[in-house]
Specification:
Oligomer: homotetramer
Low-confidence stretches of chain A: none
Structural class of chain A: alpha/beta
Order of helices and strands of chain A: EHEHEHEHEHEHEHEHEHEEHEEEH
Largest sheet of chain A: 7 strands, parallel
CATH class of the largest domain in chain A: Alpha Beta
Strand content of chain A: 15-25%
Helix content of chain A: 25-40%
Number of helices of chain A: 11
Number of strands of chain A: 14
Radius of gyration of chain A: 20 Å
CATH architecture of the largest domain in chain A: 2-Layer Sandwich
Largest interface: A-B, 48 and 48 residues
Number of domains of chain A: 2
CATH topology of the largest domain in chain A: Dihydrodipicolinate Reductase, domain 2
Shape of chain A: globular
CATH superfamily of the largest domain in chain A: Dihydrodipicolinate Reductase, domain 2
Distance between the termini of chain A: 34 Å
Strand order of the largest sheet of chain A: 3-2-1-4-5-7-6
Chain lengths: 346, 346, 346, 346
C-alpha cells in the first residue's frame, strides 16, 4: 500500500481527501497533521469517518512526513511553500492543494497574495496539476500544484476553443458561482448560515486571486495571453461550482454542431470530463461528491457569442478529488482508483 | 378607499399583492378571483393572511371587476389579453403583471409565446410600467404592462450607461440568477425541494422569453437597437434576483468615479433604487420583501469591461411591489404608499 | 414621538428592533450603542436599513440612554444586569431582551449561567414580559424581562391546559426546533452555512438554559411546580421556531372539540395568538417576520396524550416583536403599533 | 455476478439503488422497469449515472424479472402486492421497499392504506427486513419487506431498552423529522422548493401510516404490545431523518452509564449501527449517503425520562441501503458489500 501523509487535515479539503482515500484500493493514510488538534482522534472531529479511520492528528514534522510515499498539503496558502524545500530534499513527492505553487511568476504571486513568495526557486519545478492539459508532466513531477476550484472549472470549459483559437481571447468573461464550502471551515460572520442562506451575491469583483491563475492557464493552453473578466458569486449551497463562460467566435461560420463535436472529441478519453448532449444545462448536484466536470456548449440565438456551462464539485474535482487523480497519475495507478463514487443525487 | 380587484389570486404574485395591499393606507382589496378556488377563504390557502383579510376567492367576472378602481392581473400569460377589451371598454384601469402587453410587436410576441396575440390592437395603448423610465406615461395610462422580473433588474442596471451611450450596445451580456419563487406555484417536478436544493444551474440559455422584452426596453432607453446575451440561472433560494451585467466602455477615458456619480445622480430622486457605495456587492437578502433595487458599479482591474450588479426581490420590485408602485403613480397617490416594508434580514 | 434607545444594536435582535421601530407610528430610535462599532453608520452594517435610518452606533453611556423614554437591551446575558441599577435610578423604563432578569431565583440563575447574578436586588422588581399572561403587570413595570424564544413558544402552547390543570404537570415534554438565527450573529464554526445546511440535530439535551425559565413560567401559570423534558433542535432555516408539546390528559373524558374551544376562547382577544382550525399543522413560514404565534391542538388516535403545535418567529414574537409589544403596553399605546407586518410567504 | 432487477426505477429510492449497485462488487443491474419512461436511457433521467450505467427503462414484465436472481420493488404501495404471487411462483427472491408486506395483519393494513390487501396469503411469508433484529430470518426469506424510514430510525433507537423491558412501553413518544426526499419524486405543490424551504412543520399528527408498523415492530422486539405517540415533521433538507425518542424508566436506579453500555454492547457487532460517545448529539449529515444509523442516549437532569437520538439517511438505511444490506444477507454475501460509501460531509 502507498503511504499517504496529509498536512492540514482539519479543513474541508482535508476531510474530503480522507473520505476518498479510506476507500482507495492502493493507498493508506498514515499521517494527518494539525497543530491545533494534535492528539485528537480524527473521527472525533469528523464523525462521518467513524469506523473507517483509526488515527489521530499529529503535529507537523518533516521527517515523519518524508517517510510517506506522497504528501498532500490541504492548508491555506503560505504553509506549503515554507516546508517544501525540506520535503523535496528528502525526495518526498508532494501534491499541494494550496495556491503556493500555482503561479509561476513570483512577482505576480506576491502582488495577489500580499507577501513575498518564500520559495521562488521551486516555482519552475512545480507542475500545474490539470490532468486534462498536463498529464504527462504530472506523471513525472515531484511537486504538483493543484489548480484552484474556479480555475479548474473555467479552464476545462474554455480549453477546446482556446486550444484551437476559435474565440477572441481578449474578450473572455467567466461568470462563476460557488457553494459556501469553498470559503473553508473558518469562523467568519460572513459565512454563517444566517448570513448566507436564502441569498445570493457577487464578491471579489475588483479582483479575485484566481484571476491571474486562470489567465496564466488559458495562456498556456492557447499559446497567447488572454484577457478575462472573472466574477465569482456565492450560492446558498454547500458544494458545487458553476461557471458560465462567454466568448466571441472569431469565425462565425463555425456551427454549434461543430463546436459540440469538438468538445466531445477533445474529452472523449478523459475519465472525469463529461460533455453533455446538445441543449443541456448541467446542474451542480449531478457532480456532488464526484470527481466529474460536466460541460455543455450553447450558441444562443445563433449569434456570435457562445456560452459554455461547466460544473464541478468544488471540493472534489475542484480540490481533493483532482489531487487524488494527480496522485494516481504520479504513481502510475489507475487514474480512477478511489474516485468511483457517484454523485449523491438527490 | 380605492377599490382593488385581483385576477388570479392564488399564485405567488397574487399573495404578494395581498401582503402589501392589506396595509396600504388608501386601497382596499374587494375582489380576488380564482376559478379553481372559488368559494374558499383566501386565508385558508395563505394562513399568513389570517386576521388581515376577510374575503373569499370568486370566479372571474368582468362586470364585478369593472366596479373596481383598478384591477391587477396576477395570471400566467394568455389570460389578461382575453379579458382586456371588455375591461377597458368599461373604463377600468388595469395593471397587468403578466407578459401579455409587454412586447409591442405582436409578431415578436407570437414568436416567443408560441401562439397568436389575442388582442394586438391594444398593444400600442399599453404603457410599459418601469417607473424609473416611464413615470409620466404611467400616470396617464389606462393599461400598464408591468415588466418581468429579469427585465426590471437588467434595465435598471444598464439604464444610466445605455441612456448616455457610454457602452457598446452590441456587446451586452446579462448573467442573471433568480430564486425559485420565480417559477410560480405550480406542481412541477423540476421545482421540487429535492430537485432544486443545494444545487445551481443555468436554464433557457438558447432563448428565454425575457430576452426580447429586455432588448426592446434597452432599445427604448438608448434610442438604438441593442444586442444582448441573456443567461438566466436558478438559485436555491425562495426570493431574490441578482443580475451581473457586463458592458464594454466606448470611451475608456471615463473613470469609475464618474460612472459612480452618474448612477448616483440618475437615481437620486428615485424612491426605490439605491446606488451602493463604491466597491459594494449587493446581497439579494438586503431587498427581501422590499420594493427596492440596489445597484453597484465596478470596473475590474481598470480594464474596459464594466460590471454592474443589480439585485431585487423578484416578487416585489420584480412583480407585485412594482405593480403597486404603478398603481400609486396612476392614481396620484404617494408613490411609496403601502411599500414601506423593509427587507427581512436576516 | 417616544424616544427609544437600544443597547447592543449589532446583533440580530437589534436589527429586528430597528426593522420594526423605523415604521412605528409613535416611536423613534435616537440612540443605538455598540462598543465595537461605535462611529459606524448603522446602515453600513445592515444595508437593509438604507434610506430608513440616519444614525450611527455610539458607545454605551448611561446618561445618554437615560434621556430616552424607553431603553431596550439587545445584548448577551451579563450586560443588562450591570447597567440596570444606574438606569433604573434615573427612572428609565427598560425592556431587557436578555436572560438577566427572567429567572427570579438568583441561585437558580447562577446555576444555569455559571456566574453570580450581579444585581439580585432587582430580580423581584422585574416583570416577566409575556403579555398573554402578565399584561397588567407589564403595563405598570419599570423593568420588563422579555421571555426567551423557546419559553414564549412553549408557554403559549401549554398555557390553556396548564392554567386549567387539565394535564399531568409532572409529565410534560416539549420537543422544540429553532432556526439558526437563534444562535445570534457570532463567528462560530458550528453555525457556518457548510456546517448547518442540509442537516438536523438536537442540542443541549442534558440541559438548556431555557428549561428553568419555562418551568418557572408554567409553574406560575398553573400554580404548581411542573416537570418538563425539554429538547431543542436546530433546523437549517434562518428564522422560525416550532414546538411540539406533549401532555397526558388528567381527565380523558374531555374531547378534542372541548380542547379546541378552550384554546379559541382563551386567546380570542389576543392580537398575536392565532388558534388554527382543527386538524391544522402550522408552518413556521406563516409567521416569518410577524409577531404572531400560531397554535394547533391534536389528540392522536383519540389516546390520552395530546399534542400541541406552536410556531413563532424566534426573532419577532420570540424576541424583538414581543419586546415592542411590551413597550406598547408599558406606554399605553395601541398594542399592535409597529407590529402590523405580515409574514413573508413564500 | 448476481443479476438484479428493479421495478420502479424512476423515483428516489430507485436511483439510490442504482447509485450503490453500480459499484457493488458482486451484483449487476440488468433490468429497470418504468411504464412511464420505457425506452428512455436511465442516465438521461439521472445524469449523475452517466458513464456508470448503460441501460434503458423497460416496461414491467414478470418473465423478464423472474430471470433475475433478486428483484427490488422501489414502487409506491399497491404495486408489489399485485405482482408478487406470479414472481414468487417463479422462485424469484424479492426485496420490497414499499409498504405492501410490512404489516402482518391485513385488516390493519387496509385500515391505514384505505383499500383491501391484494395478496393477504403472502403476508405471513414476508420477513420484516430489519437486519439488527431479524438477520437469520432474512437470510432464509424469499420475500423481504423492507422497513419504512421512520420505523427503521425509531426501532433501532428503542431496540435495546424495549428488548430488555427497561421502559414503560405504554408511554413511548417518538418525535421524528425527515428531509423532503422522503416525500418522493412527485409533482405536488406541498413539496415545491418555495413551499418547503426556510420553514418547518409537523404533519400527519392525527395518524401516520408508519405508526402501526412501528408499534408492530416494537411489539415483536419487546414481546408485548406498545403504545406510541408518533409525530413526524418535515425539515428543509433533502436527505436525513432524526428521531428524538422519549421513554420513562421502569427502574430509575439504572444509571446513564449502564444504558450507554447496554447500547454499545447490543450493537457492538452491527456493521451499520454506531453508538456515539456519551453526551453526543448526532447530526443527520454525518450519515448523508451512508447506510449508517448513529445513536446517542441521554437522561436529562437525571430525571426519569430518557431521550434517545437516532439519525439515518432516509434514502439509504431508511430505504435503498437497507434493501441492499438485506440482499447481501439473503445471498450470503459480505453484508457490507456495495455499502462502503462514507457520508458526504460537509
Amino acid at each position: 500500500m502507498i503511504k499517504v501523509g496529509i498536512v492540514g487535515g482539519t479543513g474541508y479539503t482535508g476531510v474530503e481527501l480522507l473520505r476518498m482515500l479510506v476507500n482507495h484500493p492502493e493507498a493508506e493514510v498514515v499521517v494527518i497533521t494539525s497543530r491545533a488538534e494534535a492528539g485528537l482522534r480524527v473521527d472525533a472531529l469528523y464523525p462521518s469517518l467513524r469506523g473507517y479511520l483509526n488515527i489521530r492528528f499529529s503535529p507537523p514534522d518533516v521527517d515523519v512526513l518524508a517517510r510517506c510515499d506522497v504528501v498532500f498539503f490541504a492548508t491555506p496558502h503560505n504553509v506549503a511553500m515554507n516546508m517544501m524545500p525540506a520535503l523535496l530534499d528528502l525526495d518526498t513527492r508532494v501534491i499541494d492543494l494550496s495556491a503556493d505553487f500555482r503561479i509561476r511568476d513570483p512577482q505576480l504571486w506576491s502582488q495577489w497574495y500580499g507577501e513575498p513568495h518564500a520559495c521562488p526557486q521551486l516555482l519552475s519545478e512545480a507542475v500545474y496539476g490539470l490532468p486534462e492539459f498536463n498529464r504527462q508532466a504530472i506523471a513525472e513531477a515531484q511537486l504538483v500544484a493543484c489548480p484552484g476550484c474556479y480555475p479548474t472549472s473555467v479552464q476545462l470549459g474554455y480549453l477546446p476553443v482556446i486550444e484551437n483559437q476559435l474565440v477572441d481571447s481578449q474578450r473572455l468573461i467567466a461568470n462563476a458561482a460557488s457553494g459556501v464550502s469553498g470559503a473553508g471551515r473558518q469562523a467568519k460572520i460572513d459565512n454563517l448560515y444566517a448570513e448566507v442562506s436564502d441569498s445570493f451575491k457577487a464578491y471579489g469583483i475588483p479582483g479575485h486571486r484566481h484571476l491571474p491563475e486562470i489567465e496564466q492557464g488559458l495562456g498556456d493552453i492557447g499559446g497567447e495571453p488572454v484577457n478575462l473578466t472573472f466574477t465569482p458569486h456565492l450560492v446558498p449551497m454547500v458544494r458545487g461550482m458553476h461557471s458560465t463562460l462567454y466568448a466571441e467566435l472569431v469565425d462565425t461560420a463555425i456551427s454549434l454542431e461543430e463546436l459540440q463535436n469538438l468538445y466531445e472529441e477533445r474529452y472523449a478519453d478523459e475519465p472525469f470530463v463529461d460533455v453533455l448532449p446538445p441543449g443541456s444545462h448541467p446542474q451542480t448536484r449531478t457532480v456532488k461528491g464526484a470527481n466529474t466536470c460536466r460541460l455543455a456548449i450553447h450558441r444562443p440565438q445563433g449569434r456570435d457569442t457562445i456560452v459554455i456551462l461547466s460544473v464541478i464539485d468544488n471540493l472534489v474535482k475542484g480540490a481533493s478529488g483532482q489531487a487524488i487523480q494527480n496522485m494516481n497519475i504520479m504513481l502510475g495507478l489507475d487514474e480512477r482508483a478511489g474516485l468511483n463514487t457517484l454523485a449523491l443525487l438527490p
